[in-house]
Write a structure and sequence with these properties.
With 340 residues, this protein is mainly α. Helices cover 77% and strands 0% of the residues. The protein is elongated, with a radius of gyration of 27 Å. Belongs to the GSP F family.
Length: 340
């Protein structure tokens, strides 16, 4: 289930239940939203509700479409009789993640368009080299020296661009899928100046938001930590679920359980420990989540600035390289003519 679809579902459903609407009516209405997969899932929930099945149980049958956090929060809401509160809180969590993502994409949109415009300008030059004919006859001088002219040259250029894009996209895909255990390099990434701490802050913010939401809904600490670790979308962090569980069963506090995972920085653990002393787990993590929310927004701005700078540097490097190459080719050709 896409993040935007999950946010919309939780908000509409939570608002409807809060207003006292009938569950079957809400599910029937939800079957009219989203993709075919989402509509089919909502119809299945409706069929389950008609047969007396709980909403969370029906969601489990549709896994992995519904996120584990949504299923767990729905189950807790059903048990406590506060389903509308659970779903509306979850809607806020999803909205927070959407806002961070939009902020990042919005900040790199303009330099991305500049990169595209630069490639289009190069494509136009390559096309003109094949389309125009010099007054003396023959072919236009290849000022770029790459042997690319006309339509075939343009297609070759964009073929190279596609290959580079596929390689970069494949690397990102492999990282998020943790192929070959590549996520084990996350601690090394965190050591990169400026960018590393920013990435870690965003991850900790997501962890805190989910942990705060789960604890406030009434989930036990073990399940809350497990869901919070899962919300990072990283197998590296998910690996800490078992050590945290063992620590809590051994009588450790929340801060002690997180420390047992060996995943979190000392500063973060200290903040959790101080927050625990000043209030309950749910209250303390909620305060911490608010604090890291502000830090995450700054971190997104930092990463966006780095990404923007890299794109601009790429555009400048490409243009400077092509200008210098054209100058060398042109003046080199003129020099050869003078030597004849």
């Amino acid at each position: 289930m896409k993040l935007s679809a999950a946010q919309g579902f939780c908000y509409r459903f939570g608002t409807g239940i809060k207003a006292g609407a009938d569950l079957l009516v809400l599910l029937k209405s939800e079957a009219g939203y989203g993709s075919d997969r989402q509509r089919n899932a909502m119809r299945s929930l409706g069929e389950g509700a008609k047969s007396g099945e709980s909403l969370s149980k029906s969601m489990e049958k549709e896994a992995p479409f519904f996120p584990p956090l949504m299923i767990a929060m729905t189950r807790v809401g059903e048990v406590t009789g506060r389903l509308e509160r659970s779903l509306l809180s979850l809607s806020q969590l999803y909205q927070h993640r959407i806002q961070l993502r939009r902020k990042f994409l919005g900040s790199i949109a303009w330099p991305g368009l500049q990169l595209f415009a630069g490639l289009m300008a190069i494509s136009l030059l390559i096309w003109l080299l094949g389309a125009l004919t010099p007054a003396s006859g023959g072919e236009m001088f290849d000022v770029l020296g790459f042997g690319m002219k006309g339509v075939s040259g343009v297609l070759k250029l964009w073929g190279y661009v596609a290959i580079v894009a596929l390689i970069i996209g494949g690397m990102i895909w492999a990282f998020f899928r943790n192929l070959g255990g590549v996520q084990n390099i996350i601690p090394i990434l965190y050591m990169i100046p400026v960018m590393g701490p920013a990435l870690q802050t965003i991850t900790l913010s997501r962890f805190c938001w989910t942990l705060s939401l789960a604890l406030d809904a009434g989930l036990d600490p073990i399940r809350s930590i497990e869901l919070a670790l899962d919300s990072t979308d990283s197998d590296y962090y998910r690996s800490g679920a078992e050590p945290a569980k063992a620590a809590i069963l051994g009588g450790e506090t929340l801060a002690g359980a997180l420390k047992a995972t060996n995943l979190f920085p000392e500063e973060f653990l200290t903040r959790v420990e101080i927050s625990e002393i000043s209030g309950t787990d749910a209250e303390s993590i909620d305060i911490l989540a608010t604090e890291y929310d502000g830090k995450a927004k700054v971190a997104v701005g930092t990463i966006s600035a780095i990404a923007t700078g890299l794109i601009w540097l790429s555009v400048i490097a490409i243009l400077v390289f092509l200008i210098l190459r054209m100058a060398i080719r042109i003046f080199g050709g003129m020099y050869d003519v003078t030597q004849i």
